[in-house]
Structures are given as C-alpha cells and as structure tokens.
Amino acid sequence: MEIKVLEKEKNRIKFEIIGDRHTMGNILSKELWNDKSMVISGYRLEHPLVSNPVLICETSGKDPVKAIEDAVKRLKAKNKEFLTKFKKVVK
Q: pTM (2 decimals)?
C-alpha cells in the first residue's frame, strides 16, 4: 500500500490510497467521524477495478494529519480487542 498526498492545507488533506479498494477508505473515513473536530470525512472510488480510493479529511481546530493518526490508533485498539475476544470464543 502506498499513500499519495494530493492536497494539504491547514485544516484539510486529500490523499490517494494506492493498492487498496474500499477497505481502508471506508473504515478510516467512518472512524474519523468519531473525532469532534471533523467537518468532512469521506472517500470516493471512481471505478472499483481500475482506480484507488481518494480520501478527504477536513477538520475544525485540529491538524487533519493528527486526526488521521488518532483514528488509526483507535482502529488498532479495536482490532486488538476484537482479536482477543475472538481467540477466547474459538478455543
């Protein structure tokens, strides 16, 4: 997976997730909405077979890069919790 920044401003970032389809764009854009500073969070995928998702994140009063970093940390914690619970029930 590769990240290509298309636009970066004080409160907004737009980037392409190369080598992915819906997975990262969907989960990341949804998790970003748990941040109180979020103004815009979403992604688009022009064609599911030949294009990469482009994610847009716009915040109010918070660096959008920090918002994305925080969202990724929350997702990592949720994944760890899921794995722990899953391992308990499949034993």
A: 0.90
